[in-house]
Amino acid sequence: MTRVIKIRKGLDIHLKGKSEKVKTGISLSDEVGLSPLSFPGLTPKVVVNDGDHVKAGEALFVNKRCQSVSFASPVSGIVTSVVRGERRKVLNVILKPDTTQEFVDFGKKDVESLSRQEVIDSLLASGLFGYINQLPYAVSTTPETNPKSIYVSALRDKPLAADFEFELIGNENDFQTGLTALSKIAKTYLGIGRSQSSENIRGAKDVEVNIFDGPCPAGNVGVQINNTNPINKGEVVWTVDPTVVIFFGRLFNHGKVDLRRIIAVAGSEVKKPAYAEVVVGQKISSILSNNIPADNSHLRIINGNVLTGHKCSIDDFLDAQASEVTVIPEGDDADELLGWIRPRLSQYSTSHSYFSWLTGKKEYALDARIKGGERHMIMSGEYDKVLPMDIYAEYLVKAVIAGDIDKMESLGIYEVSPEDFALPEFVDSSKLPLQSIIRNGLDMLRKENS
Question: Is the dihedral of CA 418, 133, 50, 259 positive or negative?
Fold first, then answer.
């Protein structure tokens, strides 16, 4: 029987520029780049050279610590460059796509007849296994881990987030095949929202469906785990994005790696917010072409969601796990006379500092300004108001800053990922980079326990 779990804490932020449910056609860009930075915790080893020709599905790089985990090329084409940063850190593997795409043939498989190990072996051989993440540590996982369960959240409730129900249209069979494949590995949970009505989500087979009713971040997989089957020390849970489940289904149903996905092109600075079908690693310039002002010097282009994505340029490439490209004002050209004392009816505040709360529910065109400087943490409980998890968020952040591993463990760091602190970061009156702090804490703990 499907459970309904009520989430009472959280915050829905209503922003201008939500994508209209219309799919626009976008041609494949002249360059495609796959970045190891899209896979947290990965130490990459590049296995191709400049000038090599690869098919879609061939490995571009592998996990240096577990070389059975490879990462497939999203397109067929010529490797034009391997971009490196400081200390030769791999930033991108860039390809020039072929006019006619070629795919490695992995063979169609009847997932119902496969064993657990056969499913894992198929994902490893195709270069898709690395898209599976794990808690604790919120990193790309390896086949050596033995998950007690697998979680998929089909509920995207962050501001301007892509609607997975719209993305699912035409991919229903592949989604179900992917869920069945995951259920062969471990018990699989599918989290959905109360308003999601698609029978392909509500009636999904081979998984336990849980309905989460409440404000953002009810769609966060960490919140769903915490409210259904919390992680204890020594346990591992795999988490899989619903789009990745479709990738898995295509592999088994069609025998090839097909990394096309539907993303939301959103934000107050986008001329026509809509959905676009693109390939993983597509160039941002091709996605935003003629859809943002010609002068983009005062725009914040975000690779991913407005809360959890990262700033990028028009020449960067779509992150492997991003479901949105968001464009908002940078705010560096804002010049408000007596700005701090004006009533600010067009600005948003969670603390009623602005009088906009008197105008009722409305959409806001927020910019990227922090509006204040970093300061000492105020123990006011403001994090707990928007984080529906059974942890003491402020004490956990302080323990991470202090580097106190014992306290971090006792305060529940094994259960969290950086995205769980996106809303606390938004409401934080101390202006601390909470997602970065939690990422550093998880990396510290992982290194200590390795």
Answer: negative
